[in-house]
Amino acid sequence: MIKWSQMEHVTVRSYSALGEFGGWGIRFSWNGTAHTVSGNWGIDIKLKGKKRTLLVGTRHPDEIRQQIGNEQLVGN
Fold first, then answer.
1. pLDDT tens digits for 34-58?
2. Which residues pair with 25 in a beta bridge?
3. How many CB atoms lie within 10 A of CB 39?
4. pLDDT band at 67 (very low <50, low <70, confident <90, very high)
5. C-alpha–C-alpha distance, residues 41 and 55, integer Å
6. End-to-end CA distance of the chain
7. How far apart are CA 3 and CA 26, in angstroms?
8. C-beta of residue 60 within 8 angstroms of C-beta of residue 67
9. Is the pLDDT assigned to residue 76 strictly greater than 60?
10. For the chain, what is the radius of gyration of the CA atoms?
């Protein structure tokens, strides 16, 4: 579990599972790790003190953006 206080930056963004990570599922790339099932929207999380990001897929980007805004974090 990741705590809000551990996050440096959070963004809801579109992504290409094939282009960025080579497919869906738990995937690794030079830029970070992805946990995706389907779709092309995800929550991109940058943890404090880490260079790589964690992308978690979502089918509800608008609801996530609203929640991120409520937590006073950065969201596009």
1. 999 999 999 999 999 999 999 999 9
2. 36
3. 15
4. confident
5. 9
6. 23
7. 21
8. no
9. no
10. 12
